[in-house]
Amino acid sequence: MELISALQFLRLHEIPEAWVETIWDLEFTEIKSIDDHLDEQLTASGEKAFGNLYQCFLSYADQEQSAGTDGAPQNIWAVLIENGVSIKTLVAVLSFFVLSGKAKVANVQQRVTSLHAASVYLLMLGIPGSVAHKVYHEVLFDTCSDLSRHCWPQVTGKKRKKDGLKSARAECKRSKPQRKDTSDMQEEEEEEEELNFSGSDLKKIRDAVFLLVQSHLRLLQTFPLKDRPQSRLNYTPIFIWLLYFEPVTGELNFGAVQDINKLRSVPEMAFYGLQRLCSPEHGDQAESLRRVFHHLLYVILMMNKGSGGKPSLLEVSQAVLATRDQAIHFVCHLVDELKELALPFLQILLQHICIQMVEKSEFRSHGAQAVGMLLSEMSGTEYARFIKWLSNCSRSRKMVCRLFSVDVVMVLLEQPERRPEECQDPDLAHFLPHKFLIQNLLFSRQMDESPTVQGHALSCLAKCLEIPSLNVTRAVHNLFSATGTQTVLEGETTHGTTHGILASQQKTYRTLPFRTVEISTTENSGYDENMAHILLCVKDSKTVVRKSALQALVGLLKHGVVPLSPENLARLSERSRDPAVSVKKKALQSVGELLAAKPECSVVQKAWLQGVVPAVLDSENTVQDKALEALHEVLLRPIQPYTVGCHLDASERLTWDLLDLLCHDFQNLSHYFSRAFPIWSRQNMFTAAFMTNLISHTEADHAAGAWLLLSKSIRFSPILPYSKILDAWYRMISSKDANVATSCHILCVMGDIAVHLDELTKNRIVSDLMAWLKTFNLSIETITAALETLQRLGSSESIKNTQAFLNQHGGELVSVCEAHLAAILLNEKGAENLNEELMIKHLHTLGVLSLLCPAKFNKRIVLLVESVLTARSDKPAEGQVELPASQPLSQFRANSLPTRVRAHGVITLGKLCLQHEELVPKYLPVFARELEVGTEVAVRNNVVVAMCDLCVRYTAIVDQYIPNISACLLDTDAAIREQALIMLTNLLQEEFVKWKGSLFFCFMLALIDPVPAIASLCRYCLVHQLLKKNPDLFSQHFIECIFHFNSYTKHKSYNTFPQSESDKVRFSLKGVENRDKRFQIYRFLLENCNDVQRFNVTNKINQAILASFADEELPLDAGGAEILSEAFNILSLKELKLQTVGGVTAGEEAEEENMATMAKVALQAAQKKTASQIHKKVFIEHTVPLIISLKSLLEEKRSPALRDLMAFLQVTMQDNPNKMKELFSGDEQLLAEVEFSLKTAEKERVMSEMDHQFENFTLTGDANTPTAQDSPQRSRLILPVRFATPQPARPYQLSEQLSQTDGRCMNRRTRDKRIRPNSDTLKGTVLEKRAVGDRAISTPKVGTLNLTFDEGFSAIFSDRGTSLGGDTSVDHVQPQEQQAPQLRQWDVQSPLRQKKRNPKFGK
């Protein structure tokens, strides 16, 4: 017999029966040695012998399977018994080989023979009669089933895990080397052994694994597992693991009839095995499908689900992605095959993908694609039911669920829209259109409390407009259009409808719960509301929200959803100066995209210039580079040679349009634009060819832009023929109506090429220029450019020669100006013939010349300029004595000169002071006095400019007048306040001015300026300019702010700097009416402090204020009580709390996947613990004694500050009730009073809410309005359910505000706490978590019971292998009296009564 001879190598007759009995008694859990001789002989058996044995058993198995009832071949079990082969011994010997190869230290031969032995055993099980002959043993069967995982080397996974652990340790302690423990060394030794497997060795093991898996499939075809639930459960994770065993070439065809011998890869066989497990012969199909889908869930999620615990993420690779795609197609195949049986489990699978998704964008993207592919297998009704569930999931408390719901929406929007008639349930039909996805799921997330979700929703809104779908585009347009039908949010119903209005307008609306219904007839209310939200997000405090809002705004503008108004574009361009670098880059990219889409729109061109050009001077190099690249691509690269009659393409027209705007409308951007050219010159962009092309455009209609570029670039260009430039110069000189901007640019070009001109040409130009200047027909800007050109024409290597040239030609102009001023000022009737513009030009020319040739200015000219500002009783002449300098300009006898002339006179006088130091002490008091009592805004504004310029050159002299300048921050005119703010910020940045006196407090008052633009500018200057230079600026001045703004001067250290009585009144914020302003300043300071600074501020408040009053160093009078109350209110501010000690921000769960490593988590926990301990210690040692002492003192004095002290204790008690009870254990009376106050306040709050609800219950008589008799908490009949769909936790109550809904704006805190009268939540249902496999009831809606599962109570089986059966399918609901408990009655007792009852109380 061939079979008997094949069994000879096993030496079954030599095996002792005692050993066999021992193996069976141990139930195949341990390997026992037979004897040394037999062990060696058995171990030496090769794989060839096992191969022969396998083929023999296979032939018998095939014969048994193919033969009919009659003529069956000889039974294999009879053959074995007739030849004296003990089946029990055979099974024991096979287990010897199986367990030998399972060890980690097993060599290649042991592993291969182990796999072959397991294959033989499984083949034996598949032959009919195996159970009767006791071949089947559950433990051995499970060992053989899972043997492939033990025999296949797991090198890569261990090494990667170990490397990750080492990197985590390195982040914790890099200075101290890690000592290897015993387990680490043992693992390294094992890895070394495993790493010794060669390619041929791995090939042998792979072939053996292939044979074993093939044996599994043969077994599943003939050996039913219906009565073996544990073995059936163990099979599923084995096949799931085999899916990753090796890559598969080509696509898998799950629909074809599977022949095991034709399967060529292990994963392909694994999928076939999963399909066989779902067949009826292996148990209940529904139960099998649930189990298979549960394990495929983690394949689709790209997670590794071990025996227990939290799943870990796999490293995304091509192999993992391919396996994921195969799993998705396999699920689709099962749904196609099993139809209605598989659809409920597909619904569960989809929901669990949403629930268990992680935050990483790559995983979310692949997960959303998977949901889209699986949803394509659903009918319209099932699809609508899932969308309804997804709508609830989008309001989950878990941030990742809300984030992933947006990703799913984006995938579904790319699929064809389903028609409402595809849904058989009319109540679900409205979930099918894309309009519902956009308006109810996507747009509502833009008001999410999580910045991550909010930002993602905003960016996806912009992507919606790129989808080539008319319905999607129309739905987005409806959100921002002024007309159109509006929809109702899911879960919200309409109450109190006015049928006449609704019928006429064809609109529906929602009402806010428990609020009066207001129906607006304004057609554009939805547009204004939604657009206002987008614009508000552009200025959000979170960087990610601002970036995404920019993307959304650009999409809306680019596709014409919202108008290209200057207001909308201004919000876009101003973000290029955002504090965050990423937002600035996004803003530059956004305006660039918009310009590319709308190149001919002038408002877009202006927005692009305002956004990109100032970014050239950005402090961040990457932003500078991005701005320079954009400017080069748009303004320089398109320039081509110009010929008359040539056609300009779109890019060239855009270039010259933008340059024209720079010349005329945005001359203030010239300074920023100029800074780009030195950088471009270092990149060799101004070649001879480029400059020649540029010069050719100076004769075109757009010559102004060409001259602008020439004026900036010609100094960096090589020597060129300048004939065209000289021709343009002569044309300009002879022209009477030359454009001012173009004239200035030509003059600048002439100055740049002066070094390349010969002397004859220079002299001719100088002569023409002097004649041109003496006419005084030029504008002020042209005069400045001409004088600068004159200076450059006379420049030479010798400074003496240059100054002589300036004195000669400048002196001529000074004489002309002096004669003109004298004719007006020294002539009694000169003012009657005054030409205001001509007078201003002469004054301006004198001011510029005073910096070029100061030697030509005598005392008479100074007196003439002074006379422009004042009137004298006798005419000044050269050599006369000046007027006293102590008088302000407005105190002189008023002259008849206009305000504009006097304002220019101030600037000219300031320039004279810059070059003549002896004039500074004379005129500085005049300027300072003018700031105090002057009435002319233009004059006083120029005085601020002049004094700040003088401060740069004469810092020590001007320092005493800084309080006069800082007082302008509170000026009655907004222009002067803004000018003073800008000038002082520049001086503080360059350290020409120090933070002394009242300067800091003037800046604080600018924070609450009535003009929002000035207040915003002040915040920017303080936070982003001045605070960076002095990080402790706010914390150092915080305590003094308390004393200063309350006008308290009795403290020995604070608020002691000299200050006039008028300034004390102007800077005071004393009184209850100014409390909000003071606390606005306090909050701003604390928000911009770190934890260390907040901690120091708290200590200073304790020491400088609380301790001073407790020790009676400061009197507890009316002023002292106000300071003390202020201190208690500040200590109660949430901004003063340490962020390290505080909890996680709402909406942002501290999930492990958000952390880089566990080391960072441990470090954060240690920091939090340390900060909490220090804070507690300081509070115990310093604050508590002061509070107790002050309470006694305030009670004795009957001070009103006692109320604020108790309020502070209430806030502290609410935050840390247990800690407060421990801290105040020594003062039981104080503790009881605080607790009593808290209970009373809570009771009042609850009663107030109840009263408010009852009032709103009776507002309307609509049938949908809940009443006290029709309570949503009434009991409902919960029927037993066999299967449950997972549902996220109760949706958190955010009010998703859409354009179709009521337009009332509410703050986020109110929205989160809103109660909905028609909530779908089953109130009062008690969730009971029981044994594995049980379920918890959650949120039944309109007769449909949506249930949830997870580890421990999952409807999809957990890894512990439990099933639903018996009582586990019954859902227990507590009785009605337990479901709706009444409001808890407060056990409130007065502390005075407690004191009477307990004499020891309070001692």
UniProtKB/TrEMBL annotation:
Residues 939-1101 form the Condensin complex subunit 1 C-terminal domain. The lineage of its organism: Eukaryota, Metazoa, Chordata, Craniata, Vertebrata. Residues 1393-1403 have a biased composition (Basic residues). This is Condensin-2 complex subunit D3. Pfam families: Cnd1. Residues 164-183 have a biased composition (Basic and acidic residues). Residues 1375-1385 have a biased composition (Low complexity). Its main location: nucleus. Residues 162-196, 1366-1403 are annotated as: Disordered. Keywords: Cell cycle, Cell division, Mitosis, Nucleus. GO terms for molecular function: histone binding. It comes from Solea senegalensis. It is found in: Nucleus. GO terms for cellular component: condensed chromosome, centromeric region; condensin complex; nucleus. It comes from the Eukaryota. One of its GO terms (biological process) is mitotic chromosome condensation. Residues 184-195 have a biased composition (Acidic residues).
